[in-house]
Amino acid sequence: MFHLSKWTVTAALCLCTTAFAVPAFAAAPDCPNGGTVRMGVEPYDATAKLVPIYGHIADLISKQLDCKVEVFIATSYNAEIEAMRNGKLEIGEFGPLGYVLAHKVAKAEAVATFADKDGKPDTYTAGIVTWPGSGITKLADVAGKSFAFADPASTSGHLMPAYWLAKNNIDPDHGIKGYYAGSHAASFEALRNHKAQAGELNSEQIASATLSGSYKQGDFVELWRSNPIPIDPICINSSLPDAFKARMTKVLQTLDLSTLPENDRKIIGFSGVKLVPQVDASFDPIRDLVKVLHIDLNKVGG
After folding, report:
1. Contact at 8 Å (CB) between 19 and 70?
2. Relative orientation angle of helices 242-253 and 47-65, to the nearest 10 degrees
3. Residue 3: beta bridge partners?
4. What is the structure's pLDDT at 137?
C-alpha cells in the first residue's frame, strides 16, 4: 500500500542552515570532527520555535560531554535520516517511525528519550480531526475528502492515521484526497484555515498551538485519538568509536533538563525534567504497523 520510494530526497544532506553552537572551548580529545558533535532534529514544529529550545539542550549536552554541540533542524524527516546515513550526524532525535527507518538504513541506535513526571519514558498520541462545518461528523465521512498528513516518515503525522483509516475501510492512498503539508505545524494550519477538510493532529502540536493561542477545542472536532505512542528517541550513530559512544550514551541517558522552561518542555511534548534510557524494542509495535501497511523500508531514500 505504501512504498518509501516516493519519499526520496534530492540531496544526501538537506538540513536547515540555522544551527546552534556553544561557545568555543578546549574539547575532550575523543570528540569527533575536531571537537564537534552534530545533532539533528526532525521538523515536528516551526523551526523558529525549535532552534532556541534545542540550543539550550545542546548547551547542556556540551557541558557534560565536553564537546561542542551543533544542532540542525532538518527540512524534512527523511533529510535527517539521510544525514545520519551519510555520516553527517552523531546524534539524532527521530520520531518513532523515523527511528525505525534510521535504525535500518542509517545505523541509528536509540539510547535515551524524554521522561514523564514519574521518570519513565513519556508518550504522546496521534489523532484525526476536522472542523465544524466541514461536512464531516464521523470518521467514515473522511472518505473522498481532502486530508492533511504531516510528513511521510512521521508516526503520528502519517503512519498512525493512515493505519486507522485503513482499519476503517478507507484507503489512505486512494480513498481520500491526501497530501503532505510538510510538518505537524503546517497540517495544523491547513486545518485551522479550512484548507483541508480533515487531517492529523497530534497531542504535541495541540500543546504547542495552545501555548501560542491558536488552538481552541471548540474549533476542532476529534474523530479519533490513538493509544499512547513512545515519544521521540534520542539516537546515536552506532558507527562511532565504542568508548565515545559509551560516554555519550551515559550523558544522554542522565541529562538534567530542569533548566529548560516549562513551556519549552510542553512544545517538545514531555512532562518530566530529564532524559532517561530508551531501548530499540520499544519501537517494535511501530515495526508491526509498517508490516501491516506494506511499507518497504529497503526503498527509503530511493
Report:
1. yes
2. 120
3. 296
4. 96
pLDDT of 219 strictly over 80: yes
Looking only at the bridges linking them, the beta strands covering 177-180 and 36-41 are: unpaired
Type of residue numbered 79: A
**Structure confidence by residue, pLDDT tens digits, 140-169:** 999 999 999 999 989 999 999 999 999 999
Q: Is-contact 125 291, C-beta < 8 A?
A: no
Amino acid at 26: A
Query: Grid coordinates in use for 22?
Result: 556553544
**Closest alpha carbon to 286 in 154, 105, 91:** 154
Q: Going from the N-terminus, what domains does the chain have, and what CATH number goes with each?
A: 4-122+230-299 (3.40.190.10), 126-225 (3.40.190.10)
At 188, which helix (H) or strand (E)? helix 184-192
3-class DSSP state for residue 231? coil
- Is the distance from CB of 236 to CB of 252 less than 8 angstroms? yes
Q: Is 130 helix (H, G, I), strand (E, B) or coil?
A: strand
Question: Are the CB atoms for 272 and 116 separated by under 8 Å?
Answer: yes
212: number of Cβ within 10 Å: 12
| CB neighbourhood size of 137 (10 A) | 11
Q: How far apart are the first and last CA of the chain?
A: 17
d(C-alpha 39, C-alpha 41), whole Å: 7
- Mean pLDDT lowest among 73-77, 138-142, 198-202, 246-250: 73-77
Asked if 220 and 131 touch (Cβ cutoff 8 Å), the reply is yes
pLDDT band at 3 (very low <50, low <70, confident <90, very high): very low
> Band of the pLDDT at 298, cuts 50, 70, 90?
low
| Helix pair angle (284-292, 96-105), 10° resolution | 90
pTM, full prediction? 0.86
CA-closest candidate to residue 65, choices 34, 40, 21, 30: 30
Contacts of 291 (CB under 8 A, 6+ apart): none
